Amino acid sequence: MLGMQHVSLGNGVAVACRRCGRPTETSYLAAAAVKDDLDRAHAAGPAPTLLLCGPEPFDHPDLHGIVTHAVRSGFPRVGLRTSGVALAQGGTASEYISAGVRFVEVEMLGGSNGSHDELSGLAGSFDAALAGIAKVRAAAEAEGVRFALRGRVPICRHTLQESPGIVAVLAKAGMSSVELACPPNMVSAAASEWLCAACDTGTVNGVWVAISGIGPESLGPCVLHANDVLQPQGGVS
To answer: What is the spatial distance between Cα 92 and Cα 135, in angstroms, rounded to a whole number?
Structure first.
């Protein structure tokens, strides 16, 4: 997404493909360290959107305090990158919208509960993520706030062929856009065909698909979808 600053909560990712090897070990920065990073990012000139990324944010022991600090610091829009599972639990969605979160990016590895749960290694996470998306949409509507939802697909050789199905699922769930986050070495005619199929699926289902991580020269007919990566993403990561 253009105009986005990234601040990491620690080491790791919200969702990882377990078939690609052992996932990165997860660890969290102390809240004070994250807040210092937020202050530096804000001093550099806040972008329209701040994204708290890295490992699953809802597992950080002081996420609420970090979100509150970001909002009070004056970031125009504060967002979270998550598996979406925690949003389905209790009043989590309402709590964080009340705290000031206005953007959620949900990561997904498969277009069905079987493929997503198998690749993520998290039983029930596909259905929980969709339930979480529905809850956060309902909570935002109840609060009467403007809210953005974005899907993100970490592309690897196991998720590549899933990507058109994932785009269709996320479009149906109400996402405004979907990012296909590719590794730099994902360059081949076969990969381009699947990425283009995912872009076409987005067009059919009324959701914009953006491709990041690889140069536009690798994308052939879907080069238009590389617009998000043609400008640098600022912030602390």
So the answer is: 9
Segment holding 178, helix H or strand E? strand 177-181
pLDDT of residue 3: 77
Number of domains the chain is built from: 1
In whole angstroms, give the CA distance from residue 58 to residue 229. 27
Closest CA to 3 of 49, 70, 41, 51: 49
Q: Is residue 234 part of a domain?
A: no
Bridge-based pairing of strands 27-28 and 10-11 is antiparallel
Quick check: 125 and 85 in contact, CB under 8 A?
yes
Q: Which residue, among 97, 123, 96, has the nearest Cα to 110 in the 3D structure?
A: 123
Q: Which two tokens stand for residue 126?
A: 């596909």
230 phi and psi angles, rounded to 5 deg: -85, -5
- The owner of tokens 């029930």 is 124
User: Which amino acid does the sequence have at 4?
Assistant: M
Rounded Cα gap, residues 130 and 85, in angstroms:
8
Residue 79's nearest CA partner among 198, 184, 231, 235 is: 235
pTM score: 0.91
Question: Which domain covers residue 212, as residue numbers?
Answer: 4-229
Answer yes or no: is 143 within a domain.
yes
Q: CA-CA distance, 30 to 190, in Å (whole number)? A: 43
What are the tens digits of pLDDT across the range 56-77? 999 999 999 999 999 999 999 9
**Domain CATH for 60:** 3.20.20.70
Cβ within 8 Å of residue 138, ≥6 positions away:
93
